[in-house]
Amino acid sequence: VFIIMVQISPKAFFFDFDGVICDTEKLHMLAALYVLKPHEIKFTENYYFEKLFGYDDKGLFEHLFESTGQKLNKETLKQLITEKNTVFMDQIESAIIYFDGVVELIQSLHAKSIPLAVVSGALSQEVEACLKKGKLDRYFQFTVCADNVSRSKPHPECYMTAYQKMLANIPGLLPDDCWAIEDSPMGIESAVGAGLNVIGITNTTAAPVLSVADYVIDHYREIEIKTP
Q: What is the DSSP-derived secondary structure letter of residue 160?
């Protein structure tokens, strides 16, 4: 198999989490289905990956209640997010899966002293638990998650926040010096909106849907890190 290498020289690198580091999207889907049972809201796996994929928990529940014509008050929303988080945390105890090649990419970036961060629409507690489980937390300077921002992807706030945090550590860092890797159109839109370079990876979404990214790859080994 002939692999075309994507050569990049990042001064900072941002990873999305679900669908990029961890194969956890299905666990999020099952957790959501479980907590929505009392509200008689159901959806198929196809519907989840076509329509709901990329939302944070708040956006997911708001969309589902609206599309079924049900009212969702703040109290119920808060309760659903808490319950889903509990179910998800129980699931990852037994089912944490990293995508093939991602750990090697994280380690090779770290070995070249390129600072790393996670920028995710998931909750901090979920991300940190999954990273700790594989002892990956030591490679990342910080995480920016759904509970750290007021507007989630596709809004660029999370990536703008991550860039500002990196800038505090690396004076003179420009958005164009930073690279992000994403698996959803919403995530790519968020990173592009913050002025970052983006690689789309086809872990969960077909390549044509990711075409707004600077590059689209099928596997992490297609990335070659060149130090400036």
A: H
The residue among 167, 176, 162, 54 whose CA lies nearest residue 117 is 162
Residue closest to 183 by CA, chosen among 148, 144, 150, 212 = 212
Q: How far is CA 207 from CA 4, 150, 183, in A?
A: 15, 29, 9
Q: Rounded mean pLDDT of 95-120?
A: 93
- Residue holding tokens 């629409």? 121
CA distance 157 to 21: 21
Query: In angstroms, how far is CA 145 from the centroid of its own chain?
Result: 9
Q: Can you read off the two tokens belonging to residue 180? A: 């992000």
Convert the pLDDT of each residue in 29-46 to its tens digit.
Answer: 999 999 999 999 999 999
Instruction: Tell the residue number behind the tokens 């076509």, with chain if given.
Output: 50
User: What does the alpha-carbon distance between residue 93 and residue 205 come to, in Å, rounded to a whole number?
Assistant: 26
CB atoms within 10 A of CB 103: 16
pLDDT band at 228 (very low <50, low <70, confident <90, very high): low
| Dist. CA 18–CA 12, nearest whole Å | 20
- 168-172: long-range contacts at Cβ-Cβ below 8 A with a sequence spacing of 24 or more? 169/115, 169/141, 170/11, 170/12, 170/115
